[in-house]
UniProtKB/TrEMBL annotation:
Descriptive protein name: Sugar-phosphatase
UniProt similarity note: Belongs to the HAD-like hydrolase superfamily. CbbY/CbbZ/Gph/YieH family.
Pfam families referenced in this protein's UniProt entry, alphabetically: Hydrolase
Annotated Gene3D superfamilies: HAD superfamily/HAD-like, Putative phosphatase, domain 2
InterPro entries attached to this UniProt entry: HAD-like_sf, HAD-SF_hydro_IA, HAD_sf, PGP-like_dom2
Keyword set, alphabetical order: Hydrolase, Metal-binding
Membrane-spanning segments: none
Source organism superkingdom: Bacteria
One term of GO molecular function: metal ion binding
């Protein structure tokens, strides 16, 4: 019986993907690496240190360690989100929707825990979540299902009883690998990516989810 919902964070609950892009381009520029928006999209959904490792192996910069670059990006994006991060359309609506249904609610993000906590405080939504998990503490990040499985365990939920909300192909793959019913809300420019067919449902906005759509998922 589906009674649990687990949300991704970046690009789904908070409009942070553009801020991640700016932070990455600014910090990478300090080591002589120029990343276009198209290149930053290539690593959407990965953990920060995996993104940095990916580009370090490609550009082989010197002067700063990958760890230092990683920390600078996290510091920068945290500051940007606190200064200008906005809730995604339908954020409070979807949280209240599942709260009213008595669903257990969790968050499973690739972002570091300190950034997650900063976002939850900034948006004032920490109270909605009974479990908050970061993939930074798992051996593998998304698209591996580890962070989703850890969050489900913390909620004492069977993965088969969970709905996962995601915005990226990487995150959707992780949720499906965890055997969760998966809803995707992609960014507008990604909505026609054929890979989203793997999801159980695709929406343009969190506001599009309702009782009728929940009933459809329960019938899967």
């Amino acid at each position: 019986m589906i009674n649990t919902v687990i949300f991704d964070m970046d690009g789904l609950l908070v409009d942070s993907e553009p801020l991640w892009g700016v932070a990455m381009r600014e910090v990478f520029a300090t080591v002589g690496v120029s990343l276009s928006p198209e290149l930053t999209h290539k690593t959407t959904g990965l953990r920060t240190r995996e993104v940095v490792s990916y580009w370090h192996s490609y550009f082989k910069w010197e002067g700063k360690s990958a760890e230092q670059v990683t920390n600078e990006i996290i510091d920068s994006v945290t500051a940007k989100i606190i200064a200008e991060g906005k809730a995604m359309e339908g954020l409070l609506y979807i949280l209240e929707f599942f709260k009213a249904k008595g669903f257990k609610t969790g968050l499973a993000s690739s972002s570091p825990l300190r950034l997650i906590e900063a976002v939850l405080a900034h948006l004032d939504i920490r109270e909605y979540f009974q479990a908050v998990y970061s993939a930074e503490f798992e051996d593998y990040g998304k698209p591996h299902p580890a962070v989703y499985l850890a969050c489900a365990r913390a909620l004492h939920a069977d993965p088969l009883d969970c709905i996962a909300f995601e915005d990226s192909v990487t995150g959707m793959t992780a949720a499906k690998a965890a055997r969760m019913t998966t809803v995707v809300v992609p960014e507008p420019h990604n909505r026609h990516d054929p890979r989203y067919a793997l999801a159980n449902m695709q929406l343009d906005s969190l506001l599009d989810f309702n009782d009728q759509r929940l009933t459809l998922l329960l019938q899967h």
